[in-house]
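Researcher: Structure for this, please.
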Amino acid sequence: MIKSKKITNVLLLISLFVLLFGAGYKWGEYRTSIGKVDKAGYSILNTTAKNNKNIDFTLFWDAWDKIEKNYVDKKKVDPKKMYYGAIKGMVASVDDPYTFFLTPDENKQAKDDLGGKFEGIGAQLGMKLGRVVVIAPIKGSPSEKAGVRAGDYVVRVNNEAIKGMVLTQVVDKIRGEKGTKVSMTFERDGKEYTVDLIRDTINISSVDVKLDEKVSSCTANCSPVAYLKLSQFGDNTADEWDKAIADIKSKWDAKQINGLVLDLRDNPGGYLESSVYIAGEFLKENQLVVKQESTTIENKDYYVTREGKLLDIPLTVLINGGSASAAEILSGALRDHKRAELIGEKSFGKGSVQEALDLNAGAGLHVTVAKWVLPNGDWINGKGIEPQIKVTNTVAPGDTLTRDADAQLDKAIEEVLLKK
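Model: Predicted structure, token format:
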């Protein structure tokens, strides 16, 4: 009797398990069916809305179907491109040029850029007044050799107007394999010019150090001034910076130089943390470099956390309209703490912080998560930083700035010598 009851109980448990399993399986089938859309030749999964937004996607699929059925050139109807395009449009709806979606190829290219190597024309691009603008041509690149300048607006790529395109779309059209040609039309001072550029491998060195003796107020017996060009704040910047500073430090200790000019012209920025690290070379420990303010992430103040090697060297900083983001954080902090005078022209004016997020399948999303504020409380977004000493370089149309014509650098060196 006891044995019979045990068997009965076991059978009841098995029956209950089968019942629950069958119900779960059917529920899974149902959930899958409502989250799956079968199209001709492919299936679309995970279509159910999340977070109870109750969004009716009927209009979306209606537009999708109409494109597939009615568009004249069927070769251009690519489901993956339509899918990525829909995401780009969704992200662009927040109306922030620095918040954008990257396809897997674009995301890889963005990471390569900060790693210091890519193939293209060698021009850092940004957005200004809703237009794609050259923030800076890269030293030695096809764009610099062709006379492209910071502030030039991109009008057409291969004779295709780019008006209305987001930044990543334009970059995607410009980039390409080494040795291939791209025709670029730019606008400068209201006039257009077109150049054919041969794409090349662009290797970006963040830091370039040299001694400069061309100073109008310098006598034949004076010591030179160190010149340090910082082109971006990328993956390799800190290591390259440390090597350069070791050289400058040894010359400063040996009294072989009178001071330093830090050139941040045409520096489009990069990692915020890199700008804080470099500021620590010239500012004292615990001095504020920048404040980060946000409604979505924790507010944070960034302070100098190390002992710099060049705390007492006479210093001036060069900026212009191509100095953006992290370059503005560094120059602004040095200005606010009265550590250096800024010389040149007003900076670009980008005062926001982006978080680079990796998505499924290698795609990426750059999202504006905060704004940054300088130590004195300035938010320079859209305004830029005005230099204490304004100097404008005059270059003939189509020419590239040469050292002999660099009045900004001349003035920066003169100001350094006044500090010694």
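Researcher: Any notable elements?
Model: Confidence is low (pLDDT under 50) at residues 1-34. The two ends are 106 Å apart (CA to CA).
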